[in-house]
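Q: What structure does this chain adopt?
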Amino acid sequence: MIDTHAHLDACADPPPSLIARAREAGVTRILDVATSARAGRRSLELAEEHDEVFAILGIHPHESAAARAGDVESLRELLGHRRAVALGETGLDFFRDYAPRQRQLELFKRQLDLAAELDLTAVIHTRAADDETLRELERFPGTVVLHCFSSPGLLAAARERDYYVSFAGNVTYPSAEELRSAAAAVPAARILAETDCPYLAPQPRRGRPNEPANVIHTLAALAEARGEDRAVLEARIEANARAAFSLP
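A:
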């Protein structure tokens, strides 16, 4: 099993412990996501130290206000590393508004341009900004992953545009019937699973910090929602992740 989106540096426990527990749970690959250019270097160090880890590097919309003038160019350098597999997470968050919306848009555009130039998958964060996100992605020619899918209103466009759709622990919550319906409608070749740890612990671990080992609970909820055998879906998600991120 693979956790396609984790923030190991944000977890309380040290990465080696998280990775060991993931391995015990059957999670053999973890895509560690850096949310700033500065954090990207640490993510690459983890990927160099642990065979299970690969890096996704970008500037999160929440970090847009603090981003420095040369950060996108720094990303260009970091993304040339052999263990970097995608750009992200980038996008728009008009729900929290932790950064000015115009600044978020500027950095989103620049990062999409960089992903297109480098022929890298773009991992997208979008919240309360569906229309604006789709408008910017319309011009992006590459592979798109909608991370922590939480907006069923995006499903039709995702299907039409052949985006990958990744579900996190919130799909397991009792109130998330609409999300589970969306998960059931995602084409088999485009579904992914993630933890987004340390956030959004799945229902069996709710109230505790999330970690990569818990992606197995998200897998179980997705299999039930889709009426599929869990082992079959696990193999499908593994194959999808290899294709989406050009994993070995």
